Protein 1
Amino acid sequence: MNRRDAIRNVAILMGTALSASTLAALEGCSSGPKNYTLQTPETRALLAEIAETIIPETSTPGAKAAKVEEFMLVMVGDCYDEKAQKVFTDGLDKINDESKKRFSKGFVDITPEQRTELLTAIDKERIEYNKRKDKKEGDPVHYFQYMKELTLLGYFTSEPGATKALRYIKVPGKYEGCVPYKKGDKAWA
């Protein structure tokens, strides 16, 4: 089984779906040179804050506790093709530039409320981009699509995400095909 199939299977098991473009960005293990330009403390801090804004700490651990930024760096650096890596890294620059334009500070230095406001606006931009009728096959994915999907995949496949955010039984008992559901119950890991 190759990496793309394994990730798709994990996403299906989690009850989520990765976009076809995200799966297309995943190359095999032997796709060529690795991208280590992302491995800077500044990039790690920026990714950690973006992920934490997407999945903040509440009564359950947030994305920072799950070290989602580490997962994102490995996925983008080792698994994405050069075109997808460029979209992703250019997107990090765009987020920082937009933060400086709106708030006169980089993304890492603004308040959590400002981060949420900024990422909400970028997500609306992503939705509009995906609705465009003039898009063609092979057009690049909106950079925030990669960031959201990698954050969700990294979080819900991490120990804190799978055991604290989802219902988890370390050693399950018998199979029960029909389990009562109450509104607000967590999904099963």
Note: The chain is about 55% helix and 0% strand.
Protein 2
Amino acid sequence: MKEQRISSSVIKRLPRYYRFLGELKKQGITRISSGELAARMKLTASQIRQDLNNFGGFGQQGYGYNVEMLYDEIGEILGLSSLTSAVMLGIGKLGVVVAENMDFKKQGFKLVGAFDVSEEVIGKTVAGIKVQNLSELEVFCKKHKPKAAFMCVPSSAAPELAEKLIELGVVGFWNFSHYDIRLKHPDVFVENVHFGDSLMRLSYKIKNS
């Protein structure tokens, strides 16, 4: 299923469906109607049905959704059944927190390499991965062929690194730098993460409530 055939708003809701269904599984709930799921997620039943119909639809009239089956199906749609290899660039405080606290395998990724330019961190181990000098990146990528890169580097370093990684076969970026990667490559995907933006949106909502 090509992502461009599905609206971005639907794609953004899929991980939320997956998370809620996972919680239902833990609670021992085996089936749920679109109305019940909508009430839990603060959506409408028609919205849920429309979203899932983009992928064929999974409910049965009079029965609803099989929780485990729908959970597994959405996991397949999100590509979680096979792990995408990834490298992390920038092993400062943020990089360490991300590397050691994210369950990458649960999210569909396998961290295979970590790189930095600081002698203070090169040679150390983070999340079971030995940090290598950034100068070794090209040789490493040609050998291991990672498809994703997690960027925890300064904004000044991000543009050049992104272009270099694309040349080496990377097609997706999880970008924590303060630089919005805008790439002129239609087959490259970027998820920009800005904690500050999120906090400012919260500030606005509180002050304008």
Note: Residues 3-77 form a domain with the Arc Repressor Mutant, subunit A fold (CATH 1.10.10.10).
